[in-house]
């Protein structure tokens, strides 16, 4: 039985744009292996175009600092909890505000980006605990409809949070997320996906060695198969609706595909969009790639649909 899978073709225009990005990024591929890379990473992410009329406000939720991204007339009872990427050792709420703001503008739902603790200073499970604390902070403010959205490591963290909150819901201790969107999620910190090798040459940004360094910073000698670090190995049946987006030109391709496959086998509700020729977390290339705009439209529609249910 195959997962619910949608294939998206690569246009000649986007093929040329991706090749230009490849030339620009090739000197830096696989080099972000420690905290010293944080300023450079933030500068790249902060360059994502901002959405008109979105306002940004620093805040604290559940003891976790972060940033609200609000579009005009955003619903007061709904929120997106956006968990940023960066291999669990890079990324910040401020750097991600423009990208999260794109979701806020397109859904009419405010997005909160928590500054979860980063490794190696604050290793696992600090990020997991902070994501759950931010969730509880939203609930404490009376937010009843919450979507989880994340990219790369943040996509994996969103899927971990999804499973944890669903388990609490089953135990009648919490309300479940309405839905989850994960872009190029890192679901397997054990690094067993075949695409780590088969897509290594096509990959624009990451390398297996870089991911090994990130996993080491985050988990130390801990079990890389634990579901609270690698959601691929968790219980995936009965989870809220989940939408994955991944490009074929990235080493984490199999992390998304295997997650969707296991979710369906276990009776989960996951769909995966596979974008031919697209690089890691390609939706950040709004304005440069037509596929980024198309993917943002699909993801925003998915969130709007499930926030209304």
Quick synopsis:
The chain has 309 residues and is of the alpha/beta class.
Q: Could you report the average pLDDT, rounded to the nearest whole number?
A: 96
Structural class: alpha/beta
> Would you identify the CATH architecture?
3-Layer(aba) Sandwich
How much strand content do the residues show? 15-25%
Q: What is the CATH level 1 assignment?
A: Alpha Beta
Helix proportion of residues, in percent? 25-40%
CATH topology: Rossmann fold
Separation, N- and C-terminal Cα atoms: 28 Å
What topology, given as strand order, has the largest sheet? 1-9-8-7-6-4-5-3-2
Helix and strand element order = EHHEEEHEHEHEHHEHEH
Q: Main beta sheet, described?
A: 9 strands, mixed
Number of helices: 9
Shape: globular
Total number of strands = 9
- Quaternary structure: single chain
Low-confidence stretches: none
Number of domains: 1
Classified in CATH, the superfamily is Alpha/Beta hydrolase fold, catalytic domain
What does the radius of gyration come to? 18 Å
